[in-house]
């Protein structure tokens, strides 16, 4: 724990339990927040969410004397209760998380979130994500906010585009001089711009008093307000907008779009107990990791082994159940891949349920190879987990979190390529 002014600052690793000292009122406020976040996480459906992946959970339990025990599962970010700030760090380490986060948005040039890392204390991931998003929006504004065609269906007093004859006739017979028309309008009201606008609204409404005063959230809010003027008259986003993808003409939107989607899908809540406020702004980690590793492999594998850059199509079992692997390698397919945001060691081995799931994916894709991809410490011997199950060759390449992120990425890629070549 560290102190800044009157604030107590704790650093908590994702999925690990930590005891913190707080007052009775702050403890009750945290329990209210726990309950609200539980209800929220059960109500929200995230873009392309796989219910078999790790679910977010905030757990508050009694500790020793005047302390409580807190655990945040499958999410990172910041929790504030009274004068206590809890920064939740990735379980794989911030340096590895930033590296993989960058993979997800570096689809056209070398941009990196770590450029702004020096401005924040270790653990304040939220600050870095917000700054990174605003840098992306600056790039969009400087390059030009892109317009697109939008279909308009409305009743007007003159003919424009295609006329709906039946509805117009009914209007005229009822004495209403309204012509029902459909036409296309060239406008900045596009899915990408709606996502950016909605994320900017969230950022500019962040309350500075709920964040660590050492970090310059005032500048973040000011920048968001300035950039918001370029998107001010665009409506809020629709859930379907989250599925929008960039193309070669909109590549410069990539950094802003990735940040906007993460911000709009923050797990956020605020509660009040007596005079104490408790709030949370958290990001689900499994989606970031899955998207980043998928795109890293897509961009770096040899052409003969290339995998999908987005979530692949659905596979159906004989019972009609939908199964969707994270990765399909080669064309025609030669192997499947399933990304697990888990850390394996000699003490914590791969779950048999993960292996069984990968066997199912391989059978449905009609291939004989399946990869279970995850993270490990240096001591983990991934070759011990290479085996054949029901005629399916299972391999478990891992990203070594004890190594430098650059070297870990290189070794991870080499192990995948070596297996696919066998």
Could you give a short description of this structure?
By secondary structure, the chain is of the alpha+beta class.
Notes on the structure:
The chain has 422 residues and is an alpha+beta fold. The chain has 10 helices and 20 strands. The strands form 5 sheets. A 6-stranded mixed beta sheet has the order 1-2-7-6-12-11. The longest helix is centred in the N-terminal third of the chain and has 20 residues, at 24-43. The chain is globular, with a radius of gyration of 24 Å.
What layout of secondary structure does this protein have?
Blueprint (H helix, E strand, L loop, with lengths): L1 E3 L2 E7 L4 E4 L2 H20 L13 E6 L4 E7 L1 E7 L2 E6 L4 H12 L19 H19 L4 E9 L5 E2 L1 H9 L5 E9 L3 H14 L12 H12 L25 H11 L2 E7 L2 E9 H16 L14 E2 L5 E2 L3 E3 L5 E10 L7 H14 L3 E8 L10 E3 L2 E4 L2 E3 L4 H17 L1
Parallel strand pairs: 2-7, 16-17, 17-19, 17-20
Antiparallel strand pairs: 1-2, 3-5, 4-5, 6-7, 6-12, 8-10, 9-10, 11-12, 13-14, 15-16, 18-19
Annotation keywords:
20 strands; globular; six-stranded mixed β-sheet; 26% strand; single chain; alpha+beta; 10 helices; 422 residues
